[in-house]
Design brief:
By secondary structure, chain A is an alpha+beta fold. Chain A contains 6 helices and 3 strands; from the N terminus they run E-H-E-E-H-H-H-H-H. Classes of the chains: A alpha+beta (131), B alpha+beta (32). Chains A and B meet through strand 1, helix 1, strand 2 and helix 2 of A and helix 1 and strand 1 of B. Strand 1 of chain A pairs parallel with strand 1 of chain B, so a sheet runs across the interface.
């Protein structure tokens, strides 16, 4: 459900979501709760990957683990060269763990992130999972 | 593919809730 708000036409709508800059894009769940925020311009691929991160987060927060895992995997497959990709690897593993209680999947993540995205903050965040 | 943007925030949120769909809100200052 796409909503377009021009800040001069609808300043109240802009401030309603604590927006402070344009462009800003929000992904909300069906109850209108914000689940992801993108502030500032992004190239097409980065933006598409960020939108998928938002949808994955919506599913994750609804405890739809299989759905969120699938969406995170879509980011990894379609947008491997984006900033969203290492984050998706991290959260895909968490989704899998939440859905199955199989913690072994987490142990693979630090190595993958170190190999593919060594400069990513997500590589650092996964360090405690090192098997 | 053209996106059909809703301008009425409350109506769109209500519709999203009824259809169990997530929402994308795009804030822009670009000239129309």
């Amino acid at each position: 459900m796409p909503i377009g708000v021009h800040i001069k036409e609808n300043p109240a709508g802009f401030h309603r979501f604590d927006s402070v800059w344009t462009p800003t894009a929000l992904v909300l769940d069906e109850n209108g709760k914000e689940r992801h925020r993108i502030e500032g311009y992004l190239p097409k691929e980065e933006f598409a990957a960020q939108l998928l991160l938002g949808l994955a987060r919506v599913a994750f927060m609804q405890k739809k683990w299989a759905d969120s895992e699938k969406l995170y995997d879509e980011i990894i497959q379609k947008y491997p060269n984006t900033e969203a990709a290492p984050e998706a690897i991290y959260w895909k593993a968490v989704s899998h763990y939440k859905g199955t209680n199989d913690h072994t999947v987490l142990g693979e993540v630090p190595k993958t992130l170190q190999q593919k995205y060594p400069k990513s903050v997500w590589a650092k965040k996964a360090i405690p999972w090192m098997a | 593919m053209a996106v059909s943007w809703n301008k009425d925030i409350d109506a769109a949120l209500s519709q999203a809730k009824g259809q169990h769909k997530p929402v994308l809100v795009d804030f822009s200052a670009a000239p129309a």
